[in-house]
Specification:
Two copies of one chain form a homodimer. By secondary structure, chain A is an alpha/beta fold. Chain A contains 25 helices and 23 strands. Chain A is 37% helix and 16% strand. In chain A, helix 15 links the parallel strand 12 and strand 13. In chain A, helix 9 crosses helix 10. The longest helix of chain A has 24 residues. Chain A is elongated and about 85 Å long.
Chain lengths: 690, 690
């Protein structure tokens, strides 16, 4: 009689487990006398996992909800971008909670900390380790590989990772997953007692030493191993005094070899050559290497399923090979993949929400979908992923009167950037509201623009799109928070500053002797042209000539004069020295303020009143508005954006904006008491007029 | 002694196979006396595959490169969009060649034939079956389900699919895969001899009949089965005279039940209730049903891995449930996924290139990457995926003088569409150059615009982005090919036609008595405004007043007068009747021509000379240019697009354009002989002047 129901199924599972162990022994068992088994190398049975793949039988997976540990060394701006694509590919296929251990320099840490904090992926834990502290441990090894000292850090992981960590997967930043990382983790189960490191064979003839004349590689077992993907048994490494072992071997080899060529990989191979019992050979599909002289085709043409692609060097995506398109498509999949879609929980695992996520979920759950301003409320609560300094950046040297131009834009204003660079030779901090795919287009745009790629003092911060309303003030706050000079010029991207403005502002700041803590907002008068083609005035005199000729106007003179009326353009015409002006309702000048000025109010999403509220905040905090007599910037024409057209035509939009204004005034009263009354009165008066 | 190398591995694989069969018997074996095994239903062991999933052991996969067959019934515009998302998800995870059998109405066939032909996915075969022919077979069954007759067609598949087909997977259009379809196919191996249909249990209490008072569902075994995902053994169904069986049962039930509520699913369940031995129960993860009253949570919280999500009804994505976000993200992944990335071959399978792909690959391989115009050459060869009539569309009734406005645009001109609809009340055929993600934004834009969603005579054709240069003439040709009226007005999207233009053109066409085959190109004079805000003239008289006042200009009067000079604006001012004009170099008027006019030359990608070449072609084919005295359209200002700015500033761009022009002229001489000489002379003269 057969057992029935659950007991029967459990019995079968147990039986299966036992059988798999037996089979595993057949397939993975090592012959200790010969070191490596030949049947998993390129020459003898090139595909390693072929029989496994063909039978379609993957190894046993780790239990549902088991935490897996991954280590990545990452330094600098470009590697930080790369590592995000890798992480996206891992998260896309993963079904387990993950703990990423990131060994980073200060640049990567700054970028990735912000990114992961704002990404808010459930069931992901991030821990940072300071690469700086590791440098002394490996700096004695000369290395000619482009990865430099960072390339050697995998050697010292056992000494710096927490003692409680027994096993980790170590990845290079230039690999992409196309499978569940738990399948890789499962291969730990196949290690023999003595094996401490799992590696895929190196898929080129590099270590055979026959690639060119006088090519003298480090010693390796056969073709050697590639260290782009490593399974590391930390506990056993610690027991086998790994540290002494690799140092001894490295020192010995460095007596005859002047430096490592392939960083840690040379050392790992030299150690394995002497201690072959330490290595566990992984199937080739777990590290398909697209390097120069690659022999990977022998692996991927036979395999049923590729698991991890290793690009090996920056140029790999452009390699002209008949399968280049195939691999390029895999990579582009994750490059352009919308990271917010990875904010999905692991169904059925205990909740592992990142910090802040629970409150956020509750706040969102309290919103009423039927309420007319629901879209506004939801947008206000949205936490956007933020990738600061997306491109290499040189922070400006500390100078007491330096000014950063701060603004925000989306894809439809990208063509403004070159002109902006020509008009503003100083530092800029720009927030860009883009999708992941657009961020790649943007990258290409900068790289192919001689003007933009020459500028290292422009910091680009990507805020990833999410939701229907443009989060204008959240964007401004991101750009503002990343400005590194004592002063900031808060501008809009459709404005081109006078060519001399950067120098003039710094000179003015110096002359005005504004001490730190002195609350001044220097007003840069705003003009506009309605024509595409016009020659930008080189001086105030030229500007005034154009104004008189009717080719230039004061900004929004016809539609919204109150926005800039307090600047007093008539007085500015004649002014030779800065003059003070008073706040009035709806004033929204472009100003230069100290970097520590109040932030923009993020409740204003979409269009309308976002700058007005900020200027009120400045006035409430008793900033003095000083108009600069030689400063100006000019607004260029553009078609109304899609968002503006959509929402300006909607009565709901106007009602919601009104509600936002009222809430803003309530908060203002709460903060500033009776002093805030004048703003409310002004609002009511202006509404009475309208 | 252990066997070594390959023989050892093969031995292990064989052993494993045997063991799995034994285990499979334990896990999947049916007890024939009781019909269904209880341990795979929601109540007893709700997760079906739980033990399997937990052990991480999937079923044996089919051999590498085996062809799998999939059947989908699809009708109408919206289902055609839906099915593409489904197909994307299948292709993303698949590793096998696939044959899709599509049962379609004329609308879906038209859309999907174009789409798959231009998609050019390797190792995918498409075959269409006419749903019209199936209707008589099932039209006798009353059905209240929204799917109508199409919902019943799965019942008759065994009679219409080729006899050579033994097994197929049948899918509803509203399912999304999150796993390799080969794993589903592999479940055929678990069917007993008598089982003919594999189904997942229905994940609601619908068939229990207790959802509301007087709810009278069709009979079913327990909770019944869901037919959104079916494994069908066609050969066995044919042998068991399936046709008689289901008809008999359906007729019998229809004596007491007035109609099916859930289409084919009711009939399948009624048959299974009487013949439980026919059904093979599939694990719940293969059809996770997010319907009203869903109990799917019992399945997905326990399962290690979801395989197929079934949205069940159009509103499902908006269901407010605590896992809605999780499922929405899965769906959005493929909605926005760039379909061209799925054009990847199956490495190691015999090449199964779609028609034309091989010549294309060869042509691309012949290009020289170092050649300065490489990007142009590559762009010219690019085959873009095309989704014609992306949204529901009502073809215009046949009228002898009707005119379709034909144009093309990308995302940055979307805001022109509403104005265009207000100015042109007739049919339009628009090609949109978008990414997959942008196509979804566009869909949302139309759905939320009262102006656009009210218009059913506007056909939107999506041409998916690929490559750095705007394929302007390929876009125009797509829009032109889809125009359904005898005449077309070839315009650009930045132009707004006079409000009366549509009526005026039809009247003119009638008055001019242009016979079919008569070659006339009616010129619509072009003007431009440099201001955003301007009131559109209601008549020629008003237009002339604005021209005289300097608010309007003839188009590109300052930058490129030769583009429209032959239109002779001075004569037009006074004209009361149509007048003939002669071609001259660089002439590029906007014209109304018969639908069968020459196509645009697709070699012109990017910007420049694309319309000029078309007008030359018209002249070479002896079209008569007739200027209409009351017709006009006005160009609105816009910032230069990113593409224009990028390429206009590049000397290479200008050189390549020059090369294209010369090749065009060579081809012209080849086609038209000495008659084409005048174009070359004109080109040389104008270059001499420049």
């Amino acid at each position: 009689m057969l057992p029935r129901g659950r007991p029967r199924a459990l019995g079968a599972a147990t039986l299966l487990l036992l059988l798999l162990l037996v089979v595993g022994f057949f397939l993975f068992g090592r012959d200790p006398e010969y070191g490596l088994r030949a049947d998993a190398t390129l020459d003898e049975d090139p595909y390693g996992s072929r029989n496994l793949s063909f039978s379609g039988l993957p190894p046993l997976l780790p239990p549902k909800c088991e935490l897996l540990h991954v280590v990545i060394v990452c330094a600098g701006y470009n590697s930080s971008r790369e590592v995000i694509t890798l992480v996206k590919s891992v998260l896309f296929y993963r079904k387990n909670p993950l703990h990423f251990h990131l060994v980073t320099d200060a640049i990567a840490r700054n970028i990735l900390e912000t990114l992961f904090r704002t990404w808010m992926v459930p069931a992901v834990v991030i821990r940072f380790y300071d690469a700086e502290e590791l440098k002394p441990l490996i700096s004695w090894i000369p290395n000619t590989h482009y990865s430099g000292l960072y390339g050697l850090m995998k050697l010292v992981l056992p000494s710096i990772l927490p003692l409680s960590l027994a096993r980790v997967i170590v990845l290079d930043t230039d690999v992409t997953f196309s499978s569940d990382i738990a399948e890789l983790w499962a291969l730990f189960a196949h290690f023999s007692d003595k094996q401490v490191v799992g590696l895929v064979e190196n898929q080129s003839d590099w270590y055979l030493g026959n690639l060119w004349k006088n090519h003298r590689p480090w010693p390796a077992l056969g073709r050697g191993f590639n260290t782009g993907v490593i399974l590391l048994c930390l506990d056993r490494l610690r027991q086998t005094s790994w540290e002494q072992m690799w140092k001894l071997v490295a020192k010995q080899k460095l007596r005859t070899l002047t430096a490592t060529s392939l960083a840690d990989q040379d050392v790992f191979n030299a150690v394995i050559k002497e201690h072959p019992e330490l290595v566990h050979l992984l199937p080739c599909v777990w590290n398909v290497q697209l390097s120069d002289h690659t022999l990977a085709e022998r692996c991927y043409l036979e395999a049923a399923d590729l698991k991890v692609i290793h690009w090996n060097s920056p140029k790999k995506l452009r390699v002209k090979n008949k399968h280049a398109e195939f691999f390029r498509n895999l990579h582009l999949t994750f490059l352009g993949y919308d990271g917010k879609l990875l904010r999905r929980e692991l169904l059925g695992c205990p909740n592992q929400l990142p910090p802040g996520a629970e409150q956020l979920q509750q706040a969102l759950a309290h919103l009423d979908e039927e309420e007319p301003c629901f879209e506004f409320r939801q947008q206000q609560l949205t936490v956007h992923r933020v990738h600061i300094t997306f491109l290499p950046h040189q922070p400006p040297p500390p100078r007491p009167h330096d000014v950063t131009l701060v603004t925000q834009l989306s894809m439809d204003r990208l063509q403004m950037l070159e002109a902006l660079c020509r008009h503003w030779p100083g530092p800029m901090s720009l927030a860009l509201y883009l999708t992941d795919a657009e961020a790649q287009q943007f990258l290409h745009f900068v790289e192919t623009s001689p003007v933009l790629s020459a500028r290292k003092d422009v910091a680009y911060h990507i805020v990833y799109r999410d939701g229907p309303l443009y989060p204008v003030n959240q964007l401004r706050n991101v750009a503002l928070a990343q400005a590194l000079t004592p002063y900031v010029f808060l501008s809009d991207v459709d404005f081109l500053p006078a060519y001399s403005l950067y120098d003039y502002l710094r000179a003015s700041l110096e002359q005005l002797e504004l001490g730190s803590g002195q609350k001044a907002a220097l007003v840069v008068p705003a003009f506009e042209t309605l024509h595409y083609r016009f020659s930008f005035p080189n001086s105030k005199a030229e500007l005034l000539t154009l104004v008189d000729a009717g080719s230039l106007h004061t900004f929004r003179y016809h539609e919204w004069p109150q926005g800039h009326a307090p600047t007093d353009y008539a007085r500015w015409r004649e002014a030779r020295t800065p003059y003070r002006v008073q706040w009035a309702a709806d004033y929204e000048p472009y100003v230069v303020v100290p970097r520590d000025c109040p932030r923009y109010d993020p409740r204003f999403v979409g269009f309308g009143w976002n700058k007005v509220a900020h200027i009120i905040e400045l006035d409430a905090q008793e900033y003095e508005f000083l108009v600069l007599p030689e400063a100006f910037s000019i607004h260029l024409p553009h078609a109304p954006s899609l968002d503006i057209s959509r929402f300006r035509s909607s009565p709901t939009y106007r009602d919601c904006l009104q509600a936002l204004k009222e809430e803003f005034h309530q908060d203002l009263s709460r903060h500033y008491g009776a002093a805030a009354l004048k703003y409310l009165t002004a609002l009511q008066q202006s509404q009475g007029q309208a």
